[in-house]
Amino acid sequence: MEFIGTINESELINGTSKLISINGKDIALFKIDNKITALGNSCLHKGGPLSKGKIGKKYDGYYVTCPWHGWEYNVSNGKAPPGYDEQQTVYDVKIKNGKILVSNQPIVFSANKKYDGSLKDLIKLQYETTPDSLNILGISTTNMNQNLERDSTSEMSLNKALSYAKQKYNASTVLLKLRDLEFRNCEGYYSINEQACTWPCSISEMDENDGMNEVYRKMILWADIVLISTPIRWGNASSLYFKMIERLNCVQNQTTLHDRVLVKNKVASFIITGGQDNIQHVAGNMMVFFTELGFSLPPFAFMGWSRGWNAEDMENNVLQFSKSRYVNRSVRDLVDNGIKLLRQVKGDPCKTVSSPQPKIMEAPSKLKTD
Ligand code: FES
User: Cα–Cα distances in Å, from 338 out to 220, 282, 296?
Assistant: First the structure.
């Protein structure tokens, strides 16, 4: 085995790490208690840079924590913490005349356990839609005390729409209430590095019971049509709606990073209700987001309910809503239009979709300049 000269020993401060490269391979050097070790730099999870990780004493030794999602490796032998089987690549190190020499071949090769968890259907994108399916997913984003349920105009409209779709079109329907799904907020891995925002979401991988996994499954794999209902809260969609769409960054990000559109031949429509106003603003926001994911929008893609700026008498809102002929008619129109568009889409489905959105290879730092 050959040893290659790298940096001077004095350049690596005790308790820190440094990135070097040997024959095009990135290697992280660590110096702990004045002993130098060398591990493969690329994390076995999604390639995060271990040389930028925090080093600390834990378990049975010193570990480096990957800055992307927190996988840990013992810096002296590359092993994952006790109880885990992953093994990072380890290189041999010698010191000669104050220089750090690193073997050109690993002395321990990496081993990564093949993922065998419950997210396989999402990883492999096992779509459940067929040319004939008519699967309609309703997502209610209103929040309420689960022990003290109240009448919600947005959720009642959604229920009306789903019942109509079932009765008239024999559609398969599923209603997800976000308030019943316990899910974590987006933790902004994208802000560390665009590649750290993964599909399925990194949080889903960390916690297979996270409630968003049900949304991913139903929205991306199962649904032909997605109907989303929201109340208006301070002029915007509900906080649960925003909590959900932040976690859908991992869907949109696939287009940006891998030119891979996960949502094809699917239709989205919206139900927006509020005691006062701002329906068009909320609709505009929702429509933009869902076309960014790849959904098609039918003509008149939303219905709204609002009694106007000075309608502070909320105790009359549900009563007026229940009596409204407009509501009953407009949710039916919403469903009819969505199904018409779906039929057109399914008549000539696209296998690939090109997205005019920015791609990572077009980012300023990736562009070659002459
Ligand atoms: S923990 Fe290292 S890339 Fe995810």
Answer: 17, 19, 9
How close is the Cα of 307 to the center of ligand 1, in Å? 50
Superfamily per CATH, domain 3-108: Rieske [2Fe-2S] iron-sulphur domain (2.102.10.10)
Domain parsing of the chain, residue ranges? 3-108, 120-355
* pTM to 2 decimal places: 0.90
Same fold, 3-108 and 120-355: no
Q: Report pLDDT digits (tens) over 105-141.
A: 999 999 987 777 889 999 999 999 999 999 999 999 9
Q: Mean per-residue pLDDT for 141-166?
A: 96
Locate the ligand 1 atom nearest the alpha carbon of residue 198 and give its number: 4
Please answer whether residues 101 and 65 qualify as being in contact, where contact means their C-beta atoms are separated by less than 8 angstroms: no
Q: How far apart are the first and last CA of the chain?
A: 40
What is the Å distance from ligand 1's center to 285 Cα? Answer: 32
Cα 267 to ligand 1 centre (Å): 34
52 lines ligand 1 (CB under 6 A): no
The CA 126 to ligand 1 mean position distance, Å, reads: 24
Pick the CATH number of 120-355 from 3.40.50.2000, 3.40.50.360, 3.40.1170.60, 2.160.10.10: 3.40.50.360
* Pocket of ligand 1 contains residue 68 by CB under 6 Å: yes
